[in-house]
Amino acid sequence: MSGRMYKIAYFTVDWNYELVDQTLHGLKEYVDAHRNVVLRIFDCFGKDLDNDKDKSEYRIFSLPDLSTFDGAILLSNQLILERVRDELVKKIDAAGIPAVSIGCPLPGCVLVDHDNRAAQKAMASHVIRQHNARRLVYLTGNLANNCPEGRQRLDGFLDACRENGIFSENVQVLEKTWRTTDGADVARQWIEEDLPLPDAFICANDEMAMGLLETLQESKIRVPQDVIVTGYDNLDSAQLSCPRLSSVFCDYRLLNYRAMETLIDMINEKHVPSVVNGDYEIITSESCGCPETSQATVLRDRVFRQTRFLRSFYLLQGQLAEELFEANNLKDLTAAVLRNRAIFGCHDIFLCINDYYFDNYEKAEWAHDSESYGAEMVLAGRSYIRFPTRQLLPEPYLSRERFLIFYPLHYNTYSIGYIAMDGLSEAAKMNLHESIFNFLEIAIENIRKKELLRRFNEMLDDLYVHDGLTHLFNRFGLERYGEETLLRLVKKYGSAQVLFTDLDEMKEINDTYGHEAGDTALCAVAQILQDSCGDEDFIMRYGGDEFVVIAVGTNEDLTDQILASADAWNESSGQPFRLGLSIGHIKVTKKEKRSLEDCIREADTLMYEIKTARRVGR
Predict the structure, then answer these.
(1) What is the pLDDT of residues 406-416, one digit of tens each?
(2) Which residue of 113, 157, 212, 461 has the fewest C-beta atoms within 10 A of its own C-beta?
(3) Is the pTM here over 0.85, yes or no?
(4) Which domains occur in the chain, in start order?
């Protein structure tokens, strides 16, 4: 390998968790062995339903800018949806980079795979020849998604039947879709309809075989004494089944290692064949009537390690869930994730939030497609770091991580962001990562809703203490902040002043020009008071056309300023009425022990005397 750095994008789906776990370990081994390879894995939990949740999961594949990569690998037999595979091929073609497809031929990609047809043929031939099975039922994988894996295995089964003289009337093919429930449904059909058992059920993967095996055994149908069952993939769970499942083993670690080697050769413009073949092995064991092939010591050790892991995992999960749901903001939540990162099986974990989600918790404020990633992301941590989404992570974090796995974070159909991890965990193999991410997504959404509720309560509180017309404080605001303001100003400045202001002839304004004019007059007075007072002063609409001001005592000219501002308004407003203000004014010093209520009462009395004197003088 040359001394240059190679940046590779890898796309997969945790549709079959155990196979993806083997895949990820193979990739990690390759990166650890090659210091000049940078690998970015884009993974999700999409299935084959193509519903809204699936679409939200698959959006992680839109995250990378492939023009910044040297090559790409698709674990395409895990990408069950043809639409998803086609979209990735278009992205790769537009970027002009070489690509490898594992398990499914794709345009413009070199195929790395084992011989599905030959492997299934070998398994079926073993059951026919060694166990004299003549009546066979075959459960296919998905035949309708344009990935030939399911068809190849079916063809291998049919090859074995033809070559071993099994007549078509003794062969039944059931078209299924890889799921455990497919096998269970077939078993229930046989039991409920009391159908005669075949000699063997041959399944296109272990998931269907185990669903079939378990459901048959629940009805006291013995395997292999009453019927043979075989699978394909040799999953850990198949090795631990009782009886041990006969299956086909393909070394996915080695297959992915070869895929990486092949892609590096393609980047270096070396000649590679259009198809790179991997090895397979037929594992014959108890479910077809052969002796147990697993080593008891290995199995005991595996069960022991899984049991210990699960015990530890559920303790960590409980602790993480508690901390997540107690978090009141993203910093608290991120700190909880970092404290509990052992559950993710990694050293570094990065929580990246869409900029529009981070900036605007109210969905109505999201200006663009809330189902996609924004132009910028926010890395949540001890501080918040903004960075371009196409960069994936901010520097220097990005440059120090050669192996990263990216998973989407979303709630219902809208995107929250994504999470990036630098390691692998046993949790992935046991389908437990998905539950952790579900906790995390719900907790983030919970924080968003907490913040919205807080803002709503603040808004209600603001409405509670403010006058709806003038937006000055009201009587409730006076009760909450008035006395406090008076004491603070006296303590800070040595004195404060209380003004009681009344708008003269308010009734005449309303009667002559209408109540809208009256409202205009009140708002004008409110604005005059705000313009005349300082930031530390308290201003309120006391009721009707009356206002109260609690102001700094050192501003000796405040009353004159207010009256002068009213005169200026009268000269420039263009309104048919004039503002006339009567203001009662008292001063409070540190030496005096006076309540705010007494101050307002005295200022009100002074104001009334001024108003009366003005009327008498007309």
Answers:
(1) 999 988 888 88
(2) 461
(3) no
(4) 6-110+327-451 (no CATH), 114-252+272-297 (3.40.50.2300), 469-616 (3.30.70.270)
